[in-house]
Amino acid sequence: MDKDFLLGMGLTEEQTEKVLKEHEGKIDALRFDAALKEGIEETKPRSFKAVKALLDMEGLSLVDGRISGLAEQLGRLKQEHDYLFEPALATGAGFLDPPERKSPDAEKINRVFGFTD
User: Measured between alpha carbons, how far is residue 23 from residues 1, 19, 47 in Å?
Assistant: First the structure.
């Protein structure tokens, strides 16, 4: 909203300031909530609500689109309540690696049917 727009609608200066302050507060709260959700979701929680409930919201603040203090709190929660988070999958050569999708005869079959990679 724009101050001139509100004044043009017949609101007084005081009413205009009040409306602008309310809307700015709501916008800040939405930005904080969105950044908080993004920060928590990056840790792959099993329950977003449970993790959020255990956070000390007073110790968090929005700085440059990121939540200051969130990483430290989430790290502590992961140590104390690891069951709230999805386990990290092992990477590298192992049983979790996808199998080779091409069969030994894949090139011959592709040539016969005219397929190319």
Answer: 8, 6, 31
d(CA 47, CA 85): 8
- Nearest Cα neighbor of 46 from 84, 1, 80, 19 is 84
CA distances from 38 to 8, 52, 63, 77, 88 (A): 39, 12, 14, 17, 18
Whether the model pTM is above 0.90: no
Q: CA 58, CA 67: separation in Å to the nearest integer?
A: 12
Instruction: Please list the pLDDT of the chain residue by residue as tens digits (117 residues).
Output: 678 887 788 888 888 888 889 988 899 999 999 999 999 999 999 999 999 999 999 999 999 889 999 999 999 999 999 999 998 765 555 555 555 555 667 677 777 777 765
Show me where the domains of the chain are located.
Answer: 3-86
Q: Is the dihedral of CA 88, 94, 95, 100 positive or negative?
A: positive
